[in-house]
Amino acid sequence: MKKISIEGMMCPRCTGKVYKALNAIEGVAEVNLEDKAAYVKVEKDVSDEILKAAVTEAGFEVTGIDEVTGIDEVIGE
Fold first, then answer.
1. What is the pLDDT of residue 42?
2. How far apart are CA 47 and CA 54, in angstroms?
3. In CATH, what number is assigned to the domain containing residue 11?
4. In the prediction, which pLDDT does 37 show?
5. Cα distance between residue 74 and residue 50, in whole Å
6. Hey, is 8 helix, strand or coil?
């Protein structure tokens, strides 16, 4: 799973835009406004550049993309 850190999300409408943009490419596990991040389960070869471009085209800035393992990292425990 990848964690995409995103700047500029301020409200639920923002998270909806990010979700829609990423879901067009890959299935999204979660877009979290509090974390300012999207968690994407990548099933096929989708580069970080493609994910970043989708978020940027939706009007937001990607500040990082990291590989995460285990649900504890995703939910912050």
1. 78
2. 11
3. 3.30.70.100
4. 96
5. 21
6. coil
